[in-house]
Design brief:
This protein has 344 residues and is α/β, with parallel strands linked by helices. The chain is built from 14 helices and 13 strands. The chain folds into two domains: 203 residues, Transcription Regulator spoIIAA (2-Layer Sandwich); 72 residues, Arc Repressor Mutant, subunit A (Orthogonal Bundle), CATH 1.10.10. It has a seven-stranded mixed β-sheet with strand order 1-2-3-4-5-7-6, with helices on one face.
Length: 344
């Protein structure tokens, strides 16, 4: 797999047209399982093919049970990684068992302590709310624990039941309860309240950061900047088209051994680009700019203003100098508002 990733990096070297990289994100599951030699190979190839901006954000996604003291020290000493994204999910054993996670609450706390001792101060953790096992009291405890460690960035996601997953099957069979929408909304509102109280900026629906600690990598998605994805199921975007690699590991490896990238590409229509802009921008603190719509998607300007008006009147959307942003209550309806604004 690593050899094929290196090959794809070579084959895709011109995708970003020589633009320097402001961020590199090694994610997509469990890259922390790679040993230090494999990580070095990948980062050395990236540096060989691309110019990194000074101070570029270089993130490694990791599971708590992978981050031993030895592994953290190796990452610090032998790779350019300067940021860790840790899939904590919860500090409750009951939650973690329900989510079928490999780590426990002790692992979650220990990895944060070891990461901080190793000098990784730029941390983000994932937390999940709305699960049947997560009481309001436990959700408050999860947030308190994150704040106590001084984590500068939080990605907090509501439990969703995706079609085709084991959870979807169990809910359908009555073996697991459906998501309690009222509890999820209550926990999201508490999340907004507590992060605001402690000075975190709610800069995207699911993301909260202390001032100046936004995730540069994820922000590039929401701001519509081009990006290159490498590996099975990786997505890339050049501003006009989107492409995605085959998700099957064996097929990916077979193709790359023949120096063929197994991907599909979609050229985005003006309507698709407008929909994507509305969907991503409306989720952020930067909001949706009426002037950008007029300049780039002019044919949809009148529709946008017509559909957004009821949400302005209800207070779910706020407007300031042509910039439209979700209000605190509007963030509970983010997906509905965006879908209403879509054009077919």
């Amino acid at each position: 797999m690593v050899a094929c990733i290196l090959t794809e990096l070579e084959l895709q070297r011109d995708f970003l047209q020589g633009a320097p990289l402001s961020s590199v994100y090694l994610g997509g599951g469990t890259p922390s399982l790679l040993d230090i030699t494999e990580l070095e190979q990948i980062f050395n190839k990236i540096r060989e093919l691309h110019l990194l901006e000074p101070g570029a954000e270089i993130t490694l996604e990791a599971n708590p049970d992978d981050l031993t003291r030895e592994k953290l020290n190796q990452i610090r000493d032998f790779t350019p990684v300067n940021r860790l994204s840790i899939g904590v999910q919860s500090f409750s054993d009951a939650d973690l068992q329900w989510m079928n996670r490999a780590h426990n609450a002790m692992h979650a706390r220990a990895c944060l302590e070891e990461a901080l001792k190793a000098g990784f101060s730029d941390l983000t953790i994932d937390l999940i709310y709305g699960a049947p096992s997560t009481s309001d009291e436990q959700w408050a405890e999860n947030l308190r624990t994150a704040f106590e460690y001084g984590i500068p960035h939080l990605s907090c996601y509501c439990l969703t039941v995706e079609e085709g997953t084991a959870l979807h099957h169990f809910v359908g069979k009555g073996k697991q309860p459906p998501v309690d929408e009222e509890k999820a909304a209550r926990q999201f509102e508490y999340l907004q309240q507590e992060t605001a109280r402690l000075g975190y900026e709610h800069y995207e629906i699911s993301n909260f950061a202390l001032p100046g600690r936004y995730a540069r990598h994820n922000s590039s998605y929401w701001l519509g900047e081009p990006y290159l994805g490498i590996g099975p199921a990786a997505h890339s975007f050049d501003g006009r088209s989107r492409q995605w690699n085959v998700a099957n590991n064996a097929l990916y490896i077979q193709s790359l051994k023949e120096r063929i990238i197994p991907f599909e590409r979609e050229i985005l229509s003006p309507a698709q680009r407008y929909n994507e802009y509305v969907m991503t921008s409306m989720r952020t603190k930067w909001g949706t700019d009426e002037r950008k719509i007029a300049a780039e998607y002019g044919e949809f300007t009148a529709l946008f203003k017509q559909v957004i008006q009821p949400y302005l009147e209800s207070g779910h959307v706020e407007e300031d100098k042509g910039i439209y942003r979700l209000s605190r209550t509007g963030k509970l309806l983010a997906d509905k508002i965006a879908s209403d604004l879509f054009v077919p």
